[in-house]
Amino acid sequence: MSRLSRPSAASAAAAELRRARWAATFAFLTNGALFGALIPHYPEAKSAFGLGAGEFGLLVIALTLGAALTGSMPAPILRRVGSRRVVLYGTLLLAVLVSGAGLAVDAAAAVRGDGGLPWGGFVWVFAGLLFVCGIGDAIVDTAQNAQGIRVQTVLRRPVLTSMHAGWSIGAAAGAGLGALSVGAGLPMSVHLGLNGLACAVILLLVHRRFLPDAPSRPDDGPAPSTETVASDSASPQAVEAADRGGPSTAPDAATDSARTPTRTGAYLALVPIVVIAMAGFSVEEFGNAWTSLFLQTERGLDAAVAGLGASTLLLAQFLGRLTGDRVLAALGRRTTLTVGLSCVVLGLLLVLFTAALPVVLSGLALCGLGCAVVVPTAYALGDEVPGLPAQTGLAIVSWLMRVAGIGLSPLVGLLATTVPLTLALLVFPVLAALGVLCSLVLHRAGHR
């Protein structure tokens, strides 16, 4: 009887984990779709509010500013509420907020279309909604990564990178459908409302497949009230035990305590991980903010051809995320990070110091492939740092990475006022090289 029941339990647990993995992937996809849908409508907002380019640039940074000001706020929220509920209710709230931003733009456009000047409050409503969206996105992003890391931990193999590929698919789909809606003359609020409704329905359908959070760590303080596991969802302890084919064993408390660093030591251990995350994230910033401008001004390409640069990088990153988990499983995290960021350095140098378009595009593709696994892996490493309350390392890595994203492009712009753009853009390969050095530090720290 026991021989028959054990394979059956293991099969059921494996099926539950597959469903949990897909549920987490759909969480990433909906998050990407919500914010990707905004991008094609930005020119509408600029026109509706009657803003110049500089003013509009300050307006849209409200989203990033809100995310950057969250600090480590997501961690205690996740510990108290649970990542499953945060992902679900946070996504529902984001869908409402994004749709509200569309209503503000449509209202301003309607007033302007009647021959009047739009009420000045519309632009502040739009900016306020983007700001709150930034805060919500930082919290939801931490929660969905916590879900992905939980699945990855129980499976005991890399899967987080492919979940981030789900975000890329969602962002591309949201932006693509947004562009179609703009071309069809669909009001911004209608498109964003329908897009938000679709994302909400997807999350409502899959959220019961999320895994419960891991048990509280000894240094978490008083344990928060835990979420009950849905009747169709196995507990993580049961899933892990069934996956191993036997009961789980608790670690030796004395040994675990001896290995736990001080709180200061734990924060210091986060430093190289944060630098690695910044290095990976900076590649996206380079692709989105600077590639087209560089290829037009420094290589003399027209706008259409220059647009291939960012597309090449992002497509390569997406393909790298589809295959990144296999690479991580084969090479390990330390080696994958070292090789990946070395490819980023090489790719950026090819872009900046070669003139032949095929070589430049090859360099951008190398950058995309090299950075594909960096941010997801940094998130996982940050979450594993001992000596911190649960999800605190993950939240800090995400927060500081976003802060770096705010300062990076202004720094390059400032440098470009005194040196040629090519030299100013060396900030990106220098940061990637620092990431390589930090990945080597991880070797000595004992990360696998």
UniProtKB/TrEMBL annotation:
Secretion signal, residue range per the UniProt entry: none
Occurrences of domain Major facilitator superfamily (MFS) profile (ranges): 20-447
Bilayer topology term: Multi-pass membrane protein
Residues annotated as transmembrane: 21-42, 48-74, 86-105, 117-140, 161-182, 188-207, 265-283, 303-324, 336-357, 363-382, 394-415, 421-442
Record localization: Cell membrane
Biased composition (Polar residues): 225-236
Annotated keywords: Membrane, Transmembrane, Transmembrane helix
Pfam families on file: MFS_1 (PF07690)
Domain of life: Bacteria
Broad class of where this protein is predominantly found: membrane
Annotated stretches, region: Disordered: 215-259
Protein name: MFS transporter
Originating species: Micrococcus lylae
